[in-house]
Amino acid sequence: VEVYPAQDSLKDYYVELIVNGKFVKVAEVKDAAGAVQTLTFAPRRAEGLRLTVTANRGRHTKLYEIKAFEK
């Protein structure tokens, strides 16, 4: 998964996949920095993806894009 935050607004977050109708946490990030953040985890077949922000920099969290793919 690649996460593209705007203006360094994203600080802490986690990513979950929807597997068989249930959310499964696959990655957690603390004190994120940079224009592109790459998260790697074991490949899984999933129905969806959810990113939950637990801390940000500034008043709002802004994301340009989230990409999920198999490498």
User: What fraction strand?
Assistant: over 45%
Average pLDDT over all residues: 94
Number of helices: 0
Q: Cα distance, first to last residue? A: 10 Å
Please summarize the sheet with the most strands. Answer: 3 strands, antiparallel
In angstroms, what is the radius of gyration?
12 Å
| Percent in helix | under 10%
Total number of strands:
6
Order of helices and strands: EEEEEE
Description:
- With 71 residues, this protein is mainly β.
- The protein contains no helices and 6 strands.
- The strands form 2 sheets. A 3-stranded antiparallel sheet has the order 4-1-6, with no helix packed on it. A 3-stranded antiparallel sheet has the order 3-2-5, with no helix packed on it.
- It starts with a strand and ends with a strand.
Features:
single chain, 71 residues, mainly beta, 3-stranded antiparallel sheet, globular
Q: How would you summarize this macromolecular structure in one to three sentences?
A:
The protein is mainly β. It has strands at residues 2-5, 10-19, 22-29, 37-38, 48-56, 63-67. 0% of the residues lie in helices and 54% in strands.
